User: Fold this.
Amino acid sequence: MATDLSRFQPLDSGAVPRFSGPATFMRLPIAAPEEVDIALLGIPFDGGTTNRTGARHGPREIRNQSSLVRRVHHATLRSPFDLVRVADCGDAPVNPVDPGESLELITGFYRAVTAAGAVPLTAGGDHLITLPILRGVAKGGPLGLIHFDAHSDTYDDFFGNRYNHGTPFRRAVEEGLLDPKHMVQIGLRGAISSAANYDFARAEGIRLIFIEELMRRGISDVMAEAREMAGTRPTYVSFDIDVIDPAFAPGTGTPEIGGISTFQAQALVRELAGVDIVGADLVEVSPPLDSSGLTALTGATMLFELLCVAAEAAVLRQPL
Assistant:
């Protein structure tokens, strides 16, 4: 890992006001994946959405709101920008009128990112984007998964279509991209269309932690179990903004009341310390559904939390 990190630093808000300059993730420079350890990426795609659209605008608005992100994490007093090279590496190509082609384009893009040696940290986009990301990242065998969401996204199809934002994790298990015995889904809640909706996940051995169990046991206990399930296995992290209660993040396609607070969301992600994170995403931010910008700001802040733990994982992965 390179020791010269001077180029890969956010703009100094004391020298360049936050409302000026290019709109990049966390005011970082633009670079190619070959130049960085962690690539911040966008996927402006919501062709897998089954009801309320708008997540295609997520990456752009998360970039805008991430101008409010500062350098040093207040709880750890560490800066990810002092640990690894991080930059905005742009958006994956998509075809807004052809979801099938979009999946192929995104897969090819992420294969190139991982071949370059960069860990992808992605802002979506709807949750279908996780499937092509995994196709690009899981090159050495099935990964573990720690998944924060109100929904399991292991359904088989909607309207006869097997590729939408409710099915990515079922397809990923079927394709051998994820090991279901090392998958945990945290924060599940909301009425379902059928009592059989969770049958596939349970039959495959995916650990389902509903919101009631999370609240009863507490964050530390639940995340200790999640870390144990991950073990030393390379693990992907997926964070759907709708795991957060819509009182805090209303701009999402499938809101479910009775969720976690933004403080609890931050606490959950911080408990990922020690997990071998080989990629992560933050999905389902739909700016048109929240004119206040609060949901995109929440997304940008959670992206920073994910970056902090991913940077620590990247350092630990380096040989002594």
